[in-house]
Amino acid sequence: MLCLARAGAVDFARAEYVRLGLDRADDDPDAIALGARLLKDVTLAAHGRRRIAFAKASTRRYHTLFQRFGGLYGAVNAATMTLVAGDRAGGRALAAAALRIPPPPGLKGEAAYYETASRAEAKFLVGDLDAARETMTRALALAPQAFAAHASTLRQLEMLCRETGADPAWLSTFRPPACAHFTGHILDATRQGALSGGLDSNLRREADRVVREHGIGFAYGGLAAGADIIFAEALLEAGAEFHVVLATSLESFVAVSVAPFGADWVQRFEQCFTRAASVRYASQDPYVGDEQVFAYASQIAMGCAVLRAQTLATEAIQVGVWDGHPAAGPAGVAVDLAYWAKGGRRQEIISVRRPPPSRASPTHVDTSGSRGMKAMLFADVKGFGALRDDQIPAFFEAVMGRMAKVVEELDTGPRHVETWGDGLFLVFDQPVDAALAALALQEAHRALDLRALGLPRGLGLRIGGHYGPVHLGVNPLTRTPAVIGAHVVVAARIEPDVAPGSACVSEALAGALATFHGDRVRCGYVGRTQGRKGFPATPIFNLTRA
Predict the structure, then answer these.
(1) What is the per-residue pLDDT for 264?
(2) Does the first or last residue of the chain, that is N or C, have fewer Cβ atoms within 10 Å of its Cβ?
(3) Would you state the pLDDT for residue 494?
(4) pTM of the entire structure?
(5) What is d(CA 204, CA 374) in angstroms, rounded to the nearest whole number?
(6) Residue 529 dihedral angles phi and psi, to the nearest 5°
(7) Is there a contact between 196 and 188 (Cβ–Cβ < 8 Å)?
(8) Phi, psi at 241, each rounded to 5°
(9) pLDDT exceeding 90 applies to what percent of the chain?
């Protein structure tokens, strides 16, 4: 149920919590804490009287947790939710009482961190900012590498700053290391210009400086011969997490982007590759001359950097090694820099001197159909298959009819629609349009009075989304437009693992949304899909309104 809540399906999680009888399990501290957490999630997404009512309900569950089992966690959270409910004096009094609870002996690592961080939260609640700052400093020293735990505390304290009107700037010193996207020039085919010969030592010094000055602890990018590998070596030397995003299959990438420049670069590639914290592929296919796949790989890497920064409550920055020339095609450093700049985040550009790129004749690409970057949604209704035959007309008239109305009323509708049974396939030109459509569909479905329609209340809409290059053609049988390709399959494989009542998207779509539209939608990591029929497990992110 915690996973359901993280997936944005809080209402469904609460229904399951009650159905399983966990709301009556007052002898189980984990069940009580989960119930309080679910009520807190509803509170923070609500407004007005509803917000106050759920804040009070959450407070009561945290009180129960503390009264039955003791400990700082329940006491401090009860104080926090009392403040959120509008009772600042009450929250301050409960926080003061919590601070009188003696710490349990023998705590180490993250357990010691959470105990101390909770005390920092309580000191903030009583209005002693200096003591909160000093206690947070001690907390981080107890588990300096527990970045996810640090981020959880920072988000809680940021919420309290918003509630109290306090300046959150005091939290900046406690943030985890920065997350970076890096991009740079590959070697010239002729090995001439700046990215050859003496470049290594100069660029390496600059890379070391950037990693040190910006406190980069996590980075995502490619691994082509030249600037990519040099920057990766600097990251690894500094002890940073290095994550590789390759445009094509491993064998093809090495053959196109590494091996032509010599065995020494292949060896350096292999050394960096084996030390990478993770490896992602924009495509598992070989390179066939379509430069767009390299741009897509860069977009995935940029999205990963932004998502990771959001998860860790820290900053995302781009580092680019650039010669100042515009790109000669749809991919390249200039394209990456322009894409990132649209999001308004910081950039650090390391300038190099090179001759302008030549516009070589493109490699032959299959032109039997057109290709394009599209955002895709697959949706279906969990429980449709169990409907009686006499319920089907009401389902199509009310449920599917409401979906049709939502799609018709979108500000920017899909360029392609397919439907079968309870299934729906929508294709959009822009990621944000797909995201807003998914949210509108979910909201409309939740507003239906299924019982009044003679339908089971458990009918839940689930939506999966993805963003990637697809083939645009014509179906030979129906003579209607068709959207096909490996990335359509990715989108289809996500939907069956989505919790009813929620929308989940791939890392590629979540990254694009986080990079440019964090003010409108939010994407939080849920987990991985189940691998099926030879398809690997895929990371998925819940989709909610910001």
Answers:
(1) 93
(2) C
(3) 93
(4) 0.87
(5) 37
(6) -70, 165
(7) yes
(8) -75, 130
(9) 77
Q: Give Rg (Cα) of the chain.
A: 26
Helix runs in 286-378, H state only: 292-311, 333-341
Tokens of 157: 């304290």
How far apart are the C-alpha atoms of 451 and 322, rounded to whole Å?
61
Check if the beta carbon of residue 296 is closer than 8 Å to that of residue 468.
yes
Contact 352, 203 (CB under 8 A): yes
Which amino acid is it at 46? Answer: A
231-276 pLDDT, tens per residue? 999 999 999 999 999 999 999 999 999 999 999 999 999 999 999 9
Render the burial of 19-28: b for 16+ CB within 10 Å, e for the rest: eeebbeeeee
Checking DSSP bridges between strand 178-184 and strand 216-221, what pairing results, if any? parallel
pLDDT in tens, 188-202: 644 444 454 445 668
Full strand arrangement of the beta sheet holding 178-184: 278-281, 241-246, 216-221, 178-184, 316-322, 346-351
Tell me the pLDDT tens digit for each residue of 292-334. 899 999 999 999 999 999 999 999 999 999 989 888 888 999 9
DSSP string, 473-505: EE-TTT-SEEEESHHHHHHHHHGGGSPTTEEEE
DSSP 208-228: HHHHHHTTEEEEEE---TBHH
Is residue 399's pLDDT more than 80?
Answer: yes
For the chain, counts of helices (H) and of strands (E): 20, 14
